[in-house]
UniProtKB/TrEMBL annotation:
Transmembrane segments annotated in the record for this chain: 19-37, 43-63
Protein name per Swiss-Prot or TrEMBL: Uncharacterized protein
Keywords on record: Membrane, Transmembrane, Transmembrane helix
Species for this entry: Natronobacterium gregoryi (strain ATCC 43098 / DSM 3393 / CCM 3738 / CIP 104747 / IAM 13177 / JCM 8860 / NBRC 102187 / NCIMB 2189 / SP2)
C-alpha cells in the first residue's frame, strides 16, 4: 500500500447475461438512433450510423448496467438474510 491507499475493493464479476443485455439494448437503441438521424434504407451509411450508435451506447451504458445488477444482487441478498417471524408469532 503506497500513498495511503486502502485495501482493494471487492471486484464485481461480469457475467455473460450482463454482456448480452448490454448488447441487445445497445443494438436496439443504436438502430433507433440511426433511424432518427438518417433515412432507413439498407445502405452503408445507415449501417455505419447504427453500429456507431450501438458502440457509443454500449460504452456509456456499461457502468449503469453493472450498477443496476449490483443493486439487484444486494437487494436479493438482503431479503434472504432478513429475519422473519412468519409462523412463530405467539397469540397471547
Amino acid at each position: 500500500m503506497t500513498n495511503g491507499q486502502g485495501p482493494p475493493e471487492e471486484e464485481l464479476p461480469i457475467y455473460l447475461k450482463d454482456f448480452l443485455a448490454l448488447a441487445v439494448v445497445s443494438l436496439v437503441f443504436g438502430v433507433a438512433l440511426a433511424a432518427l438521424l438518417r433515412p432507413v434504407e439498407p445502405y452503408s451509411q445507415f449501417v455505419f450510423t447504427a453500429f456507431s450508435g450501438a458502440v457509443l451506447l454500449a460504452f456509456f451504458l456499461f457502468v449503469p448496467t453493472m450498477a443496476v445488477r449490483l443493486f439487484l444482487e444486494e437487494r436479493t441478498a438482503e431479503d434472504e438474510s432478513a429475519p422473519t417471524d412468519r409462523g412463530n408469532a405467539d397469540t397471547e
